[in-house]
Write a structure and sequence with these properties.
This protein is an all-alpha fold. Helices cover about 65% and strands about 0% of the residues. The protein has 16 helices and no strands. It is elongated and about 70 Å long.
Amino acid sequence: MFKYGSVYKQLRKDQEITQTEACKGICSISKLSRWENNQVEVEFSTAIALLRRINITLDEFTHYAAMKTEFTLPDDIITAIKDNDTKVLEKFVHEQLNHYHATKNILELKNIILVCNQLFLMTCKNYLTPADINRIGSYLLHNTVWSKYNILLFANSPFLLNSKIGYQIALRIIHNFHPTESLNENTTIFIGGLSDTVIALVFKKKLDYAQKILNELKKIELPFYLMFFSLTLTLLQKIIDYCHTLDAQPVLAMIDTIVQLNCMEVAQKWLEIFKDVQQIWPEKEN
């Protein structure tokens, strides 16, 4: 993680902070110097303290350093997800969580969150501890740079987060994220994660939160190549309406429209989601 001492060095110099000022009470000047020259790594706690000393947050440093933050999983775990093999996934999560609890390195949560989210959808069980959930929520709620890592972390956690925290983070992202400016490839992740947040809130019967996020999403001017998401937003609205009226026909008609567009895989996904919603709000009897 912190093999990026040279980036730290430049940020420190940009603020005219000396090595002595940066490391006083944290580590030796020689250790800082060797890290800044990419000769050694420093402990995660030391790196966080050094970042605070130069007024840089962890997520800002991640952004500046352009660290590799893709969600890369071992092949056997990817296969286990496809095969719904909960035993393999549970073993992976337990091993990874034990390591994370020892290091407390927030960046190690990326693959854990992805698999925990998949397990939740399979088993309706959250494998994260309340402390884990609170830390993720606090980290996302207070970060200042929506780097790709942070967007991915959020996109894979809406079903795991506390409803209120998830709602607050979603609004913060919407109000501080401009999809047409610089993220391009990440815009799909951004919209997808927020759409999943709406679904998660529907499942948790937090319709007011779900509606408010959806209203904000409707205000975003999407690039032309992402106009299909407007159908997603329309479908989300119809699902929320169903929860109030218990009239399934508008939702089913919308899914049929997606079928007519020859988007069979998408239609099947939404039909499965709607069936889950109907388990919470049964269809009105005729």
